[in-house]
């Protein structure tokens, strides 16, 4: 009997050892107070899921600029349902005051330009970010400022302009961005636990400066939606046409940050790694949704958003964590 028990214990130990992944021994993940949740999924199977520092699957985490990527999906759903005609619709249709602006270029800005970070609108001063967040009408403020470039000409990351996407969604759908997200996206994905903050103009933040908050598993579901061409559990939540636009945008702009050689379009980044096309959303502090359609794989991570280590955490994911995960995946 004792031998039998000993044999079972040995088998358990051996099997558990074989079940470990290279991530289990990765130094960056060991005793790191800045990592909160990391999940890797391929072919609808979870390869790795772990929460750190007392966080768990119920923890709502600050997703920062991943907010933009979710808003992008919401824009696609709004187009599918006829609330918005296309991303080439001009924003003057939603902000009629631009018709009287002395700079006629503002009348030519499209939704696509804003989603490409190439609107030409004034960029909020990041060195005085909290002053921008205290403005009573942040959306009106950015529209009233002098243009810094012609629409579509220059990539300049612009949180203030990105917030306008939430205003457009609200005006087009006659629903708040958050209500639209819950009814048309979150609940259909089985995401029942979330929160979203409003800017001072009364519209839910479309930029990620105040941010939506989801758990890491919710980020995986959003990535799965893209991998499966807008279909989730047999239900078409967003059209395949829109997903293909996200994956293969007509015009991309070179990004100043993110993975090396990244381009940006429609609120997502794109790059090629070992000859594999990859799309990802990225938020301050190393929040990532990485989507690899050809490998049917999704990666999601949440980390600390504090400024002190935010850039280091993003780089660490790119250089230390992602290569290990990519080699774990079946090719």
Gist?
This protein is of the alpha+beta class.
Written overview of the protein:
This protein is α+β, with helices and mostly antiparallel strands and 331 residues long. It has a single domain (22-328), classed as 3-Layer(aba) Sandwich (Beta-lactamase). Helices cover 34% and strands 18% of the residues. The chain is built from ten helices and 13 strands. The strands form three sheets. The protein has an eight-stranded antiparallel β-sheet, with helices on both faces. Strand 12 and strand 13 (297-303) form a beta hairpin. The model is unreliable at 6-18 (pLDDT under 50).
CATH homolog superfamily: DD-peptidase/beta-lactamase superfamily
Task: Please give the radius of gyration in angstroms.
Answer: 21 Å
Classify the fold: give the CATH topology: Beta-lactamase
N- to C-terminal separation? 44 Å
Largest sheet: 8 strands, antiparallel
Average pLDDT works out at 93
Tertiary shape: globular
What percent of the residues sit in helical stretches (DSSP H or I)?
25-40%
Residue stretches low in confidence (pLDDT < 50, at least 5 long) are 6-18
CATH architecture: 3-Layer(aba) Sandwich
Please report the total strand number as a whole number: 13
Beta-strand share of residues: 15-25%
Keywords:
single chain; 331 residues; alpha+beta; Beta-lactamase; eight-stranded antiparallel β-sheet; three-stranded antiparallel β-sheet; 10 helices; 18% strand; globular
């Amino acid at each position: 009997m004792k031998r039998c028990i000993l044999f079972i214990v040995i088998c358990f130990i051996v099997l558990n050892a074989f079940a470990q992944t290279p991530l289990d021994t990765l130094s960056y993940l060991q005793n790191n107070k800045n990592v909160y949740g990391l999940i890797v999924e391929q072919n609808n199977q979870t390869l790795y899921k772990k929460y750190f520092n007392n966080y768990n699957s119920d923890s709502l985490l600050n997703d920062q600029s991943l907010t933009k990527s979710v808003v992008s999906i919401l824009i696609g759903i709004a187009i599918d349902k006829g609330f918005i005609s296309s991303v080439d619709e001009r924003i003057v249709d939603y902000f009629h005051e631009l018709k009287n602006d002395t700079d006629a270029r503002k009348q030519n800005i499209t939704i696509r330009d804003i989603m490409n970070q190439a609107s030409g609108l004034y960029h909020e001063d990041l060195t005085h970010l909290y002053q921008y967040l205290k403005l009573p009408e942040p959306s009106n403020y950015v529209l009233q400022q002098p243009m810094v470039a012609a629409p579509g000409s220059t990539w300049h990351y612009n949180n203030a302009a990105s917030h306008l996407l939430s205003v457009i969604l609200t005006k087009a759908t006659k629903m708040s961005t958050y209500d639209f997200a819950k009814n048309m996206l979150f609940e259909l994905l089985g995401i029942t636990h979330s929160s979203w903050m409003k800017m001072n103009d009364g519209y839910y933040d479309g930029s990620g400066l105040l941010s939506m908050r989801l758990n890491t598993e919710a980020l995986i579901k959003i990535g799965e939606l893209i991998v499966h061409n807008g279909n989730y559990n047999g239900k078409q939540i967003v059209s395949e046409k829109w997903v293909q636009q996200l994956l293969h945008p007509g015009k991309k702009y070179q990004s100043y940050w993110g993975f090396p050689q990244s381009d940006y379009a429609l609120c997502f980044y794109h790059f090629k790694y070992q000859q594999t096309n990859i799309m990802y959303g990225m938020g301050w502090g190393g929040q990532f949704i990485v989507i690899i359609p050809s490998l049917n794989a999704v990666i999601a991570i949440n980390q600390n958003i504090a400024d002190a280590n935010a850039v280091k955490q993003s780089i660490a994911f790119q250089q230390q964590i992602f290569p290990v995960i990519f080699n774990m995946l079946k090719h």
